[in-house]
Design brief:
The complex is a heterodimer of chains A (304) and B (326). Chain A has 304 residues and is mainly alpha-helical. Chain A is 71% helix and 0% strand. Chain A has a domain of 149 residues: MetI-like (MetI-like fold), CATH 1.10.3720. The interface between A and B is large, with 139 and 146 residues.
Chain lengths: 304, 326
Amino acid sequence: MTTTTPPATAPVLEAGKPTAAAIAKRKLTSPWASLAAIVIAVLWTLPTFGLLISSFRPQRQIKTTGWWTFFSDPQLTMENYRQVLDAESGAGLGSYFVNSLVITIPSVLIPLCLATIAAYAFAWIKFPGRNILFLAIFALQIVPLQVTLIPLLTLYVDAGLANTFWTIWLSHSIFGLPLAIYLLHNFMREIPAGLLEAARVDGAGHVAIFFRVLLPLMRPALAAFGIFQFLWVWNDLLVALTFAGGGNKVAPITVALANLSGTRGTAWHLLSAGAFVSIIVPVTVFVLAQRYFVRGLLAGSVKG
Amino acid sequence: MSTPDTNVGKIVLMVAAILLFAAVVGAILFAATFFRGRRADRLTAYAYLAPTLIMLLVGLVYPGVRTIYESFFNAAGNAFIGLDNYKTIFTDGDQLTVLRNTVFWVVVTPFVATGVGLLYAILVDKARLESFAKALIFLPMAISFVGASIIWKFVYEYRPDQANVKQIGLLNQVLVWLGGTPQQWLVTSPLNTFLLIVVMIWIQAGFAMTVLSAAIKAIPEDIIEAARLDGVGPWGMFRFVTLPAIRPAVVVVLTTIGIGTLKVFDIVRTMTGGQFDTSVIANEFYSQSFRSDNQGLGSALAVLLFLLVIPIVVYNIRQIRRSEAL
């Protein structure tokens, strides 16, 4: 099915034959169809737009007037962003932002490393128990995070790892592994066996086959998982809240924002700017790599 | 183990961690080249799988089993109380509200999000600026639930209804423009739960639209052409051609959103903290486990979540398999 090819990047089929949807739409009489589409699009963008405008308005203005007054009385400032990032006078989101990066990058790369070799073993080596093991790992995808958190926390405390980055790296890696293995395995199975046979005849071992033949072909699958996992980890609140502890030593930006929303729920100059500081990274990643994202999204739909 | 305080220190630690795991993988790959003889392949496979299996056993299987076990114990985890925690979930007044809200979430979110997504996919199909129009709806998918919650909390923001006080939340301002009085939206139950559900719909509609739009474009042209020659009208085209053709995709989308909705935690946590009768199972799990220190009840809620997810996941996977989506 073509769900793996997001239409956003598909070429525009202008002269092509109309699809069923196009025919259905045409008789919805085009002006009404356009209007309905515009209404939905506006409803979907207006909330974000309002907060974005607010994040650039002076604090006093945000407090006393709605963001729509910006159009009759435009006043812009970067003060909110300066304050929300600053540790002295504001929320000190800067260090949480760094924490988010420090959390996310290994949480993507570690499962990717481990899953590639595991998926290789499942896809191309025959060994007893292969099918049952693969099925078991596939089934683990459905375990909700919640089921694992309390015992995992106890384990971390016993191991002396509590409130360190290791707890979050390990947790996200563990939770990401089943999906990564499943995705990469499926992709590897699609590579023609003849390619591997040829390499083997040439005397290549597992390692050589792995690096020279498979890895270059695996880029789309690696990207699909990488991007899915990146957004998942960056946007995660539950795992971070459970393991990162308070303070700005380990906690990521989502935790800082959630706390800010709880303790200073009316400080909209901080909340609005803070929200966009946290949003900018995943939105950039998403825009740059969205064609890989949908595949990962669908495959990862049952994760965690 | 200590955590560095400086940003540079954190980044050094991060690089070290990545290198450590890369080294583990490298060592395994290297060691496996020395396996010889009849069992070499088998040994290689086990070596490749070893780190993964250890992590999954310690980090998923053991904690899962442990949580099921804990769910039969009391708050402090030191006395076996049988099914009492589960009894509490299904009899206690607060817990029943939690269950009721979870039902609202799981029933409303998938259908509305899928409906909006399908409608929009049809409306913008082959329109000018189609990919731009789609990006507008899809972008919320990239935003964290926390960020989305703040965006919508601002929409629902309430200012006291006094002469000199202006509303700053869009929803209340619209109400004022229409001649109504501003409301404390997030305080009134059960309306507040539905206002939180709106946030989830806002996030998930883009997912529904993308998958369904791809499914619509995959309908073979000859079927459409044949139906058109038979004089099938627009509604008939939707009802008898489009809908049957994309049915598997619709089911996948509905179940996928359903699973995500069951586990929704961040939105409730950020917008109301579960107050004002808005809590759901996933949030209640967190509150009981880490705020009220009632590990037994927390574990039971987690297990309940697991049990509720299983049938939807099984159905979802069978549909994905059938439609060969992956």
